[in-house]
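Checked the freezer inventory, then went back to the computational side. Two predictions to log before the end of the day. The first one is the construct we discussed on Monday; recording sequence and tokens without edits.
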Amino acid sequence: MTRHRLIKSCAIAAITGLTAWIVSAQQAKKVDNNALRNAAKNADEWLTTGRDYAETHYSPLKQINSTNVKRLGLAWNWETDAPSGSNVEAPMLVSNGVMYGSLGWDVVFAIDARTGRLKWRWDPEIPRSVMKGICCTPSNRGVAMYNGRIYEGMLDGTLVALDQTTGKPVWRTKVTEKPDTVLTSAVRVIKGKVIVGSSGADNAARGFFAAYDAETGKQVWRFYTVPGDPSKGFEHPELAMAAKTWTGEWWKMGGGGTAWDGMAYDEVADILYVGTGNGGPWNAAVRSPQGGDNLFLSSIVAVKPDTGRMVWYFQETPGETWDFTATQNIILADLRIGGKDRKVLLHAPKNGFFYVLDRITGEFISGQKYVQRITWATGLDSKGRPIEAKGARWKDSAVMIWPGVYGGHNWQPMSFSPLTKLVYIPGQERKSSYEPDPNYQYKPNANNTANKRGGAAFGTAPEPEGAENQPQVTTDGFLLAWDPVAQKERWRVTGPGVGGYTGGGTLVTGGNLVFHGNAAYDATTGEKLWQTDMADRSVTPISYMLDGKQYVSVVARPGVDARVFTFVLDGKAAMPPPPPAQPARGRAPAAPVHP
């Protein structure tokens, strides 16, 4: 062998060895406790539903930015073959070049994040009979990843662990106790425990969230958000205190308070934060006839993840009666407020007020309305308790309320940028009518709103006292940039394809961009900088980096025609043809708005 060939051969061997080492290193990367704790520093991947434990839905990536986003084009798309009769509502996860996600009816998939090529698909074949225990559509809001497994809570009330490489089940555990309690929330993994919350408040289920050992599937602890029958004792001490805020025989109707969405975790303070749902039945006069705050409905509950013991709680809607959940996504941030550095929790629940809480103590810091029109309350007092408008409760007669059952903000995640210090909220301005049903009778495993107007609460009715002083609203969906320190709007975008029920959730990036629906906006000014047409609503975008390229991925056409659309700078792939025309859906779903 000549000296030239020897050098060339050695160089090739070195390059091959280096490539093999890089591939091996990539394959060896494990999503363990350390990886999850440091997910905020990992710009290349998307390891949890909100990208990090603080649930910011923020990507530091800035290859795609406000100066070049106009060059964004389709890299690839993947047709999900989503089961019929369901919606896709979950953001994907990305690790080691593989994208994981869930579809309706709890189908889980893994695809190549570079190309969209299918790696595996798992269908649990959930019996369609569980639909009677679901208020809306058979949806799922996301999977979790940990130590070589993918975890999902399912509509049949079970929690499953799948092998991350093959998609085959490793274990499956029954979580719910009654058929009217299903699992639709995204699951999280904290310190080796899978955290899952229940659904079904509209069916008057009894709410809870629980922790399961990620290795074995065995329950570690369970926190009930509503007390049970006092004569049988309470499962944990917090319920004895909560029971004093209820009257009548609420436990016979479940009570509600399901934890079907928002969670976040402060790994330094070691506190898990969980948002709880509406009352079941909706009408507080039915479930708690002599009144009361009805803890822990519509609350943020902070617990220790090792034990489930409560650290503090903050109730956003005492005596909840309008389907005002506090399950909307929770964001943790560090902000300078009043000259002090504060560790805060940011929340925009359905009731229309934006809350800033001290996340260590639960202290109310500030709160202001983020929707333009609120008629059920005139404001918040110094401790953050709503000042209810006269006539807002529908104990004796019908009433029209802003915002209504769709909420000012629902399950579509908002995001927070540490650069602009703004929160980006996908919301809507909508009203609902409520009327007590004199013929209401509790029916197990069935819809139990006790609202004569139905679950979607359409119709006309008088408004509460003082409603004439509220601004008249002409818009519906909106994308709002909110300053949580000043508690002020910085900019707002309205129009077709904008807002929670048309544009999905938001993603904000280090490139000073907010992705929402079919468009990207300047995160500072709200100027629309890029737009495409994915032919129907989108869900919640994510962003990741592979081979030196930043990608933005989102599910659009979220029904049976759902596709994953992935964009990159100078992408040249052709946009797939639009799905066949469907019958007009009308202005809003004809069913209750959350499971």
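The second is the one RB wanted added to the comparison set:
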Amino acid sequence: MPPRNAWLWFIVILALNFLLVRIFFPAADEALTVPYTVFKEEVRKDNVAAIFSQGERIEGRFVEPVTFPRVVGDAAEGTAAPRTGTTFTTTLPSFVDPGLENLLIEHGVEISAEPIRTGSGWPLLVFGFGPALLIILFYVWLFRRAARQGGGLMGIGRSKAKRYDVERDTRVTFDDVAGIDEVENELAEIVDFLKNPEKYTRLGGTAPKGVLLVGAPGTGKTLLARAVAGEAGVPFFSMSAAEFVEMIVGVGAARVRDLFRQAREHAPAIIFIDELDAIGRARGGLILGGSSAEQEQTLNQILTEMDGFSSREGIIVLAATNQPDVLDRALLRPGRFDRRLVVNLPDKKGRAEILKIHTRQSPLAPDVSLEELAAATPGFSGADLRNLANEAALLAARRNRNDVSRRDFLDALEKIVLGPERPLLLTREDRERIAYHEAGHAILGVLVPGADPVHRVTIVPRGHALGVTYQRPDSDRYNYPEAYLRARIVGMLGGRAAEEIVYGTRTTGAENDIAQATEIARNMVTRWGMSDELGLVQLAPKRNPYLSGDGGFAGEKPFSEETARLVDAEVQRLIRESHQEALRLLREHRRELDALVAALLERETLDEEEILEVTGLPAAPALEERAERYAVR
């Protein structure tokens, strides 16, 4: 029972206790407060049975019930509503009445030294001690329940792991995974061990206790872990590492113990810990927020649990991270996470297979080529491709189509890569300047040898951009020649160069182009050793290949100020040479530039074939021609 329901039942029990006491132990009649004169009148009528006096206050009991205030004519004495009762209270006047005692004795009134008891004492007992006893019993039940479940008070220490059972949940197998065959082959051995453990144990072998999946976000690490559980037919306990750590120290370790206890009870089973770096960071460092003690206790408990179970129990721990460099070395030693598998982004063939999986439920039009879409999506992860297929299906449904066409996929790709359209009202002058800017990028993408072919150019505002030129490589690239990098810088500076040639002025539209060009040029100088002045020296901090962005220097730069000035000079030289090259090429092909601008103003969006048709230019020459120009001497 969840803690919220427990408190609800506790409140219901208290309310029921109150009602039962009111029904079976009704409270005594509340005493009437009467004036002293009324009290003496009732004494003279022999209607007072007994009294008890304490100071100026007199309590007593009437023989027959008395109504007060009395009704006289159409009005009642006083302002209060008339009440009837057999018990009363009154107050002696400030002056002493010497004849009161004789009057009471004459009329047979019992004068008592003890207070007059009215009603039963059970209500006082029940109301006084009943709620306290209920609270005590409730907490006894709560602690016993927590002890049985191993979760601590109110379930704070209970594991929040989600259990996926192949008998109850949708089964995921290797048929649902594509594009990462090398990792599948490694995990197939894990599946075989869970299915046939005696095959390995008879020769003294044991399965790995832990397998660490390393890769960029969206590459399918969690899907792979579920596929292993689905293929082996065993329960799968999934939990994010961030869910272990709480504000209260010790909760994370308790949840680790509870998670492994559940896995042992359902062995053979698989434990999957996502984002392991949240609790697996190297110990001894300072963690912001003051949670270092809790994080280290949780990590120590994981290390202890992985040491405490045998691989013969059939429990295998899978974990995923995109920051393997920050993990504690104790996690990575043999006997804990024995294997580390890198889950890379899929290649062209893998992307086509992934698209086949994500379009199984979608009727595709005859003009759809998954191989063409795979070629148009370099660098896409499995999650990106799933999003592409879903966006295309939504676009087709919005257009009231019965199938998903090639145009739906291309429009969905454009929306994902370039951003959604923005309905901005631009003047003729602004549209023309934007067209020249984007045409500069596109023309250089066609002219510069080795540049990525221009897939589409548009002057329709999308995302944060007023126009976009989308270039894609012909094939997946894993190694970048210096000529290719220079070609990219030249293409990026084409927009600014076109504005300078046509208008002779500059605008802020080239901000993103300058940022990208500067990043490439600086990496060429500091990271890839492509500067003759600086040589083969690494001057940039190590970066995580699975996360975007540069980490930057944690402290002082590991080189002198003279070297820093030389780095800046080399970066400026590369950008200056590329800018001059962009200006030269665009001046030589001004006619083609103007023709492309006129077509953009008319149609707003052009694809690769239309660009070549409008400009009359051939496709970009091969990279080798540019490599000779910038050959290292």
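For RB: The chain has five domains: 3-25+123-149, 32-118, 162-343, 354-418, 428-629. The two ends are 76 Å apart (CA to CA). Let me know if you want it refolded.
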